[in-house]
Design goal:
This protein is an all-alpha fold. The protein is built from 14 helices and no strands.
Length: 312
């Protein structure tokens, strides 16, 4: 086979194309993300260790890189080994830690989406290991790509202005679940999308149920720790893992709650981030994409100063 034929064969390989495409997209997204979003995002966990976010990103990036390289080499026939399982569990654990006090988007939808991913991926990877199932591992690994799909979606929506009447938090709340579904759909595994969507709904219900139970325990958090009750121990375990509504998490775990004055464009100041009139910043009116910022009060008072000087 000639060199030109070899190059043509490699260029026509689906998994080689995926490797080149995802490599370029990850480089672009991570370059932008590390400069803009990551520093602000990491400040929100001021009272916790600062390595949670980097480890979550690095383990996910390492696993998907290993998967794509082996997929290109073995024509997509990739099975996880113990190292992949370890990476997956580390990714899931730090993902749960980051999600416990996540305010971005609409917490009632974005948090269950992330939490469901932290359950779906380890389960799919472990089952793929024991059942020697290539499709199961593909579904678990491909879900990592939701990271770049979500950021790409936010960028496209921002540049196109198709949701200019909605807040940044609304866009984030929309892109996160859609990106996860797209990533799993890309794996082309029958029933995987339905299982994931059902898991997101189940996690949302679990958060709500745990929160209802915990509301009666706000006055006795220390008693829950020393209690031998199975119910209290279950609630405490769910609380540690972050499976509760955000307001309950902030009440029960002060050390992991967010700093009130740390915010960005994707944090909604009200309960529902899908409202176009809600502001992402407390005390400030919402500025939509493509619209000039309203003049400040100091700017409005400047034209009056000469008149006052003349009057005096």
């Amino acid at each position: 086979m000639s060199i030109s034929e070899s190059i043509s064969s490699l260029a026509g390989n689906r998994y080689i194309q995926e490797l080149a495409f995802y490599g370029s997209l990850y480089a672009l997204v991570l370059g932008t993300y590390s400069r803009k979003s990551a520093p602000v995002y990491n400040q929100k966990f001021k009272k916790t260790s600062g390595y949670h976010l980097p480890l979550h990103i690095v383990t996910g990036l390492t696993e998907i890189t290993r998967y794509q390289l082996r997929a290109a080499k073995y024509d997509g026939q990739v099975l996880p080994n113990t190292f992949d399982i370890g990476l997956c569990f580390i990714w899931a654990w730090f993902g749960l830690l980051l999600t416990r006090s996540l305010r971005r988007g609409d917490p009632s939808t974005t948090r269950p989406t992330y939490q469901a991913a932290a359950i779906f991926r380890p389960v799919a990877t472990v089952l793929a290991y024991f059942l020697q199932s290539v499709p199961l591992y593909r579904a678990g690994a491909k879900l990592i790509n939701s990271f770049i799909y979500a950021r790409s979606g936010v960028f496209i929506v921002h540049q196109s202005g198709i949701m200019r009447k909605h807040s940044y938090a609304s866009v984030y709340a929309l892109c996160i679940p859609i990106s996860a579904v797209v990533a799993i759909y890309e794996a082309d595994v029958t029933g995987a999308v339905a299982v994931y969507v059902a898991l997101v709904m189940a996690v949302a219900q679990l958060n709500h149920h745990v929160s209802l139970r915990l509301r009666g325990c706000l006055s006795r958090p220390n008693d829950m720790i020393t209690s031998c009750s199975v119910s209290d121990l279950f609630l405490l375990m769910m609380l540690v893992l972050g499976f509760a509504d955000l307001d309950i998490m902030k009440e029960m775990q002060k050390r992991t709650s967010l700093i009130g004055d740390i915010s960005d464009d994707y944090v909604s100041s009200r309960g529902s981030s899908m409202s176009s009139s809600s502001s992402s910043f407390p005390g400030k009116s919402q500025v939509h994409w493509g619209e000039p910022a309203p003049p400040s009060s100091s700017a409005q008072q400047q034209p009056q100063q000469p008149a006052m000087a003349m009057a005096s």
